[in-house]
Amino acid sequence: MVSLSLWEADIISTVEFNHTGELLATGDKGGRVVIFQREPESKNAPHSQGEYDVYSTFQSHEPEFDYLKSLEIEEKINKIKWLPQQNAAHSLLSTNDKTIKLWKITERDKRPEGYNLKDEEGKLKDLSTVTSLQVPVLKPMDLMVEVSPRRVFANGHTYHINSISVNSDCETYMSADDLRINLWHLAITDRSFNIVDIKPANMEDLTEVITASEFHPHHCNLFVYSSSKGSLRLCDMRAAALCDKHSKLFEEPEDPSNRSFFSEIISSVSDVKFSHSGRYMLTRDYLTVKVWDLNMEARPIETYQVHDYLRSKLCSLYENDCIFDKFECAWNGSDSVIMTGAYNNFFRMFDRNTKRDVTLEASRESSKPRAVLKPRRVCVGGKRRRDDISVDSLDFTKKILHTAWHPAENIIAIAATNNLYIFQDKVNSEMH
Amino acid sequence: MMLSKGLKRKREEEEEEKESLAVDAWWLDPGHPAVAQAPPAAASSSLFDLSVLKLHHSLRQSEPDLRHLVLVVNTLRRIQASMAPAAALPPVPSPPAASGVADNLLASSDAALSASMASLLEDLSHIEGLSQAPQPLADEGPPGRPTGGASPGLGALDLLGPATGCLLDDGFEGLFEDIDTSMYDSELWAPASEGLKPGPEDGPGKEEAPELDEAELDYLMDVLVGTQALERPPGPGR
C-alpha cells in the first residue's frame, strides 16, 4: 500500500466517492463540503499519476436556530451521497441533522467575449460608438468550478437524520432519522412520503431506534434499515405504502457465553451497506463486521472480529462513552474485501476469500508519501513483538469512524479526525 | 437564598459529576482486587449508578441523542432486573459514593422510571430551555401523566416542582435563574420603600398592605407598558 495524500481540515464527518471514483467528497463539522478530483494520469508527470487534488469547497449548511423549540441545529454534515451523473454537471445530496440539500457542481472553462452592447466589464456601451456588429466568441478561461444549491428538503424530520440513500431509479431518495424514514422525489421539496415509522404510541414503550438505512443498488423497491438492537429489516415498497412490516428480518441470536449488561449496546448496528452485487449486506456493530446473505435471515454468513480485545474493557468504554461510537464499513469494488475503522487511527481490512486480515494505521508518522504501509498488531499480553501496541496504550480519542473505497480501484479514503488520508495500492491496481 | 448564575451552576454540577466519576473509577478496573473478587451485586450497583448519571446527563441536553438515551435506559433496565430482589424494596442504603440521584431512583419502581423517561421524551419537542431530570414518581399516581395538550411546558413544571428538591441542588429556583426577576422583586408601590432594592427582605417584612393613589397607579401603568423608565416612585400624598 502506498500513501498518497493528506489534508488537514475541520473534523471530517463523512467521506464519499462518486460512482466513477473520479470525485471524492468530504463533509465536516463546520458544515463545509470539500470535493477532491483525481488528476488524469499523464506521461508528463508520472509521479502524480491519479492523485487527488482539491476541486471545490463550499459551505453546505449553516448553524440554525429552531425558535419554536429553542434549540440550535448543528451544521455538521452527517452524510453525503452522489447522484449518478446524467449530464456534464455533478450533483450530490448533503445533509445535517434536519435538512437535506441538493447541490449542482458545474465547470466553466470558456467565457464569451465580444458582446455588442456591453464591454468587457459588463457595462453598457455608448451606442453611438457601435458601428458594426460582431458575433461573440467563446474564449478559453481558467477553470472555474461553480456550486449552486438546487433544492432544499426541509421540515421532513423531527429527529436527527442519520442516513440518506439515492434510489437506483435516480428519481427518488430516502432519508432516515431515529424513528422515521421518508421518501422524497428529487424534484419536489415541499412534501415527502413517510415509509417507515417506528415511533410508539406511548414514548414509554420506546426501546429501539433506527441507526442506518440504504436502498438496494439494483432493485428500486427494496431497502434495508438497521436498529439499535442489532436487527436488519429488509422492506419492499411495493408491498405497502407504509413499510412498517418488514419483508425480511435479519437477526442473530445472542451468544449466551458472551452475555453481559452491554450486549445490546455492542450489538447496535452503526452502519449497513449493500454489496455492489446486491446479494449481500455488510453491517458494523461495536466489535465486529458481519456479512449477511439476503436469502438467509437467521444469521450472518461471515463474522469478522475488528477488535475483540476490547471485549474485556466494555465497562471502561461504557464509562467514557466510547462504546457508543459509530463506525462505518465499506466494500471494495469486487466485494471481495471489506474495511472498517477502529481506534488509535487503525483501520482493518478483511479478505473474504483468503480469510486474511490486516491492521493499518493512518498517521503522519507512518505515512510518508510513496512509503509502504506497515501492518500493525495489537498484543493482548503473552508474546509481544517489537512494534506491537499493547491494548492499554491504545488512544481511544483517535477513532477512524469514516472510510470509503473507490468503486473500481484499490484506492481508499480514511478520515482520521481532521485529517484525510488517501491510500492507493499501486502494485495491485486492478481488482481481483 | 443565594442564587448563582445559570451557566456557572451547570458547569459546577458537571465538574462534580466528572470528579465523582474519576474518584469512583476504581470499580472499573478489572484488575483491582476488590473488583475482581467483588460479588456481582456490588458491580451491578456501581454500574447502575453510572447508568443513572449517564441518563441524567443525557436528559439534560437540550436535544438528547435518542439512540444514546434508549441504549442507556435499556442497559439500566437490564441492571435493575438483575438487582431485582434488592431494588424492589423501599430505599436501600446505597454506597456512600452514590449521588442523591441514584438514591431516589433506587427507591422508585421500574414503571416510574419508564414513565418519567417517557413523559420527558414526549416533552422533548415542547420543553424550552428547562433542565430535565428523571423523577421519582412514586407519589404521582399512574404513568398516564398528561404530556401533550395545551401547556406541556407547565405540565413539566408541575412535575419538576415538589419532587425536584432532592435532584436540583438549588431547588425549584434553579430553573428560573436566567429569567430577570428584578421586575417582580422590586417594591414599586410600597410607599415607604427606598427605591428598587430587589430581594425578599423588603417584601415579606411589610406588615401593612400598600395603598395606591391615582398618580401611583398611573405611574405603574406607564412602567408596565414601558413608556417610563423605572425611577423612584412618587411618595405618598402627591
From TrEMBL, chain A:
<keyword id="KW-0853">WD repeat</keyword>
<dbReference type="InterPro" id="IPR036322">
    <property type="entry name" value="WD40_repeat_dom_sf"/>
</dbReference>
<dbReference type="InterPro" id="IPR001680">
    <property type="entry name" value="WD40_rpt"/>
</dbReference>
<keyword id="KW-0677">Repeat</keyword>
<dbReference type="GO" id="GO:0000159">
    <property type="term" value="C:protein phosphatase type 2A complex"/>
</dbReference>
<dbReference type="GO" id="GO:0019888">
    <property type="term" value="F:protein phosphatase regulator activity"/>
</dbReference>
<comment type="similarity">
    <text>Belongs to the phosphatase 2A regulatory subunit B family.</text>
</comment>
<dbReference type="InterPro" id="IPR015943">
    <property type="entry name" value="WD40/YVTN_repeat-like_dom_sf"/>
</dbReference>
<dbReference type="InterPro" id="IPR000009">
    <property type="entry name" value="PP2A_PR55"/>
</dbReference>
<dbReference type="InterPro" id="IPR018067">
    <property type="entry name" value="PP2A_PR55_CS"/>
</dbReference>
<protein>
    <recommendedName>
        <fullName>Serine/threonine-protein phosphatase 2A 55 kDa regulatory subunit B</fullName>
    </recommendedName>
</protein>
Automatic annotation (TrEMBL), chain B:
<dbReference type="GO" id="GO:0003713">
    <property type="term" value="F:transcription coactivator activity"/>
</dbReference>
<protein>
    <submittedName>
        <fullName>SERTA domain containing 1</fullName>
    </submittedName>
</protein>
<feature type="region of interest" description="Disordered">
    <location>
        <begin position="1"/>
        <end position="20"/>
    </location>
</feature>
<dbReference type="InterPro" id="IPR052262">
    <property type="entry name" value="E2F-SERTA_domain_protein"/>
</dbReference>
<dbReference type="GO" id="GO:0045944">
    <property type="term" value="P:positive regulation of transcription by RNA polymerase II"/>
</dbReference>
<dbReference type="GO" id="GO:0030308">
    <property type="term" value="P:negative regulation of cell growth"/>
</dbReference>
<dbReference type="GO" id="GO:0005634">
    <property type="term" value="C:nucleus"/>
</dbReference>
<feature type="domain" description="SERTA">
    <location>
        <begin position="40"/>
        <end position="87"/>
    </location>
</feature>
<feature type="compositionally biased region" description="Basic and acidic residues">
    <location>
        <begin position="199"/>
        <end position="209"/>
    </location>
</feature>
<feature type="region of interest" description="Disordered">
    <location>
        <begin position="133"/>
        <end position="156"/>
    </location>
</feature>
<feature type="region of interest" description="Disordered">
    <location>
        <begin position="191"/>
        <end position="213"/>
    </location>
</feature>
<dbReference type="Pfam" id="PF06031">
    <property type="entry name" value="SERTA"/>
</dbReference>
<dbReference type="GO" id="GO:0005737">
    <property type="term" value="C:cytoplasm"/>
</dbReference>
<dbReference type="InterPro" id="IPR009263">
    <property type="entry name" value="SERTA_dom"/>
</dbReference>
<dbReference type="GO" id="GO:0016528">
    <property type="term" value="C:sarcoplasm"/>
</dbReference>
